[in-house]
Design a protein that fits this description.
Helix content is about 50%, strand content about 15%. The chain contains 23 helices and 18 strands. A hairpin with a 5-residue loop joins β1 (about 75-90) and β2. α1 runs parallel beside α13, α9 packs antiparallel against α11 (about 280-295) and α14 (about 345-370) runs antiparallel to α15. It is globular and about 95 Å long. It starts with 6 loop residues before the first helix and ends in a 22-residue tail after the last strand.
Length: about 675
């Protein structure tokens, strides 16, 4: 029977519906939706699909409310005191602290958030901050960032489920604070593991300087901050960026190597091999190794998903079941979605399970046809690696392209070359180095490990340097990915000829993608200081220097190379003459059909001078103007944009149609809908 395989699919679909709703549903929505069950029962139709859908919807809503914590509503300042949970680097290379157990001094912004992420001054870059230490710092605080455009990635949702209630920028140096109370046993253990992670990462970077040590720290303890941006770009262009995220690949390679070593070692002792079931002992040892790796890697969400898979696989070995099967995969997906329903809208979950489902289904089909690879020689390794990379690459390509708006054309070549190095060189030496490190004998092993990493990085650089290695694609409609996922699951989960019905569904999704790329003609950032308008040569930007992250995301979603300088040079915005203090360098305008878009960036604009630009078909943006200008124009200032986030418009005939801002209700401060503070 194949229907149990669809239980996590339906559960995840119900959770996805919750996250896609534009408004927060009331608590009685799920009970009310159960009423159709009575009609289904009377008609003698199966109830379980609807019940599982509702269960997924309800689990997502319960989870969203269970992790709820106060969120900062507007910019403010406070002296923040808290305990360091994690230390990382920001995009600019400045140190960044994740703080909890907070005490807010000189702050009247309501209840203190559960956690804050504070970026420190550049002068603090040379200091060492240990997790578990209690510190105090004067900080400018703001809410987690809104999407850079309607429908874009919602940083507020991510912060909500991490219980991060605000983002801070330090205004002074960090000073030590005295502990008010000792942490509990489990919390103390977690903080100690965090210290070990930091020390291991520093040791790896000291033993293997440059990008090699940073790569080693990324795959072993989850610290990706030290990798140069150019190297990360080459890894993405060669489709090897997945090697940096500790996910199923790393967990599977590490635990699989430990399992093989333990089973071989136990088999060499006849007394143990004859008395004990060495297979089960080796599986238990692999689970212990996976548990240690989970802790030392920081237990990120992707690593937690991988650990659940390890428990399912080696748990099946311990009870004598098939270790890798679609039923085991369905069990792992169900456990993850039950614990973290928000995973269903995360690209890591989508790509991880897309690859795993496709691989298990493909090898199962080959086994049934008697074509599964059996030899383990060089030819078998090469063919198996190529087939695995091809299947996994095809399965994850639509999700990666939709999330990152790019396709690595030579990704298969890079993975065929790099995966054997990762599987048979890097990860085994990483396990050996971990075993020898307490004895002080890991030096030569780390040197050999670094040589393997250098080979992977060389492959990434060379493949990324090939002509046409990277292609940018436009943002698809939400339903496109759903249709592709449904087609792929139908092909993978059913047996017999009925599974072939998934092929036209999959092809329909890919075809719809080509027709559904519909980008807004006008986008205005949430700061009001950047705008992009569609033109015959592509999107023209107001400025090449402002809002760099937002502009690169806009261009990627358009299917263009993220080059703000080239986009700002296109015909579009041009200086406008103003009166009084509104010099031309402060005013820029562009035409969009019958509409005129005017952006005033003057720090202290005169209301009368700004009002001169108002007209019946005018969009006027002036971030620093507090009161609306006189006239019939569509006006946006910083206060209004702070409530709505970035705005986008479509041109329909002679009218402008605003795009829905997306779901924000639960991820923002309760007072976010009120009129913003004047100083905002």
């Amino acid at each position: 029977m194949q229907w149990p395989l669809w239980l996590p699919v339906l559960f995840g679909a119900g959770s996805a519906v919750y996250f896609l709703l534009p408004l927060e549903p009331p608590g009685w929505a799920v009970p009310l939706a159960c009423l159709p069950c009575i009609g289904l029962r009377m008609a003698r139709l199966p109830l379980w699909p609807l019940l599982v859908l509702l269960a997924g919807f309800g689990a997502a809503q319960l989870r969203a409310h269970a992790v709820g914590a106060p969120v900062i509503g507007w910019f403010s300042e406070a002296t923040v005191e808290g305990r360091i949970l994690d230390v990382s680097d920001s995009r600019s290379g400045r140190p960044r602290l994740l703080l909890d157990d907070l005490v807010m001094h000189d702050w009247n912004g309501g209840p203190a958030p559960a956690r804050l992420r504070v970026t420190l001054m550049e002068a603090e870059a040379e200091r060492s901050f240990l997790p578990g230490s209690r510190v105090m710092v004067l900080t400018g605080l703001m809410p987690p960032g809104a999407p850079v455009e309607p429908g874009g990635f919602d940083f507020r949702r991510k912060a909500w489920f991490e219980r991060i209630g605000g983002i801070g920028l330090a205004r002074g140096r960090v000073v030590s604070a005295q502990d008010a109370a000792e942490p509990g046993v489990f919390r103390a253990l977690w903080l100690q593991v965090a210290r070990w992670r930091q020390q291991i990462g520093e040791g790896l970077r000291a033993a293997l300087p440059g990008e090699t040590g940073s790569f080693a720290a990324a795959i072993l303890v989850g610290e990706r901050d030290g990798i140069p941006e150019e190297t990360q770009a080459d890894l993405r262009a060669s489709n090897l960026a997945h090697l940096l995220a500790i996910s199923g690949l790393h967990m599977g390679l590490l635990t699989g190597f430990v399992f093989a070593i333990l089973r071989t070692g136990l088999a060499l002792v006849p007394r143990l091999a004859l008395v004990w079931q060495t297979r089960r002992l080796a599986a238990f040892g692999a689970i212990l190794a996976g548990t240690a790796y989970l802790g030392l890697s920081g237990a990120a969400v992707a690593t937690q998903r991988s650990f659940v898979m390890v428990l399912v696989v080696f748990g099946a070995v311990m009870i004598g079941r098939a270790p890798i099967s679609l039923r085991g995969l369905a069990l792992a997906a169900g456990v993850i979605l039950l614990l973290r329903p928000e995973s269903v809208v995360e690209i890591g979950f989508q790509m991880s399970f897309a690859a795993t489902v496709a691989l298990v289904a493909s090898y199962d089909a080959l086994r049934r046809l008697g074509r599964a690879p059996r030899t383990m020689g060089l030819v078998g390794v090469v063919c198996g690696t190529a087939l695995t990379s091809l299947v996994a690459g095809l399965a994850t390509a639509p999700f990666a392209a939709a999330a990152f708006n790019q396709v690595a054309r030579y990704g298969l070549l890079a993975n065929v070359l790099a995966m054997p190095v990762m599987a048979f060189w890097v990860m085994p030496l990483a396990v050996l180095a971990a075993a020898l490190a307490p004895l002080g004998l890991a030096g030569p092993v780390l040197t050999a490990l670094g040589a393997g990493i250098d080979v992977i990085l060389l492959i990434a650089h060379r493949v990324a340097g090939l002509d046409g290695a990277l292609r940018y694609v436009g943002e698809p409609a939400t339903g496109v990915i759903m249709l592709i996922a449904l087609g792929g699951l139908w092909l993978s989960l059913w047996r017999g000829r009925v599974r072939l019905l998934g092929a036209p569904v999959l092809l329909a999704g890919l075809g719809w993608w080509q027709l559904s790329v519909d980008r807004p003609e006008l986008i205005i950032s949430d700061s009001g200081r950047q705008a992009g308008i569609a033109g015959p040569e592509g999107r023209a930007l107001l400025s090449a220097k402002r809002e760099s992250f937002a502009t690169t995301e806009w261009l990627r979603s358009d299917g263009e190379a993220p080059d703000p300088v080239a986009a700002a040079a296109r015909p579009g915005f041009s200086p406008r003459e103003g009166s009084g203090a509104l010099a031309p360098r402060y005013v820029a305008g562009a035409h969009l059909g019958a509409w005129e878009v005017i952006v005033v960036t003057a720090p202290k604009p005169d209301r009368a001078a700004v009002s001169a630009f108002c007209g019946p078909h005018t969009i006027l943006v002036s971030p620093a103007l507090s009161a609306p200008p006189e006239g019939p124009c569509l006006f946006y200032n910083k206060a209004r944009l702070a409530r709505s986030g970035a705005v986008a418009f479509d041109l329909v005939g002679e009218d402008l149609r605003p795009r829905a801002p997306g779901r924000a209700r639960l991820w923002t401060h309760p007072a976010a809908g009120r009129e913003a503070e004047p100083d905002q």
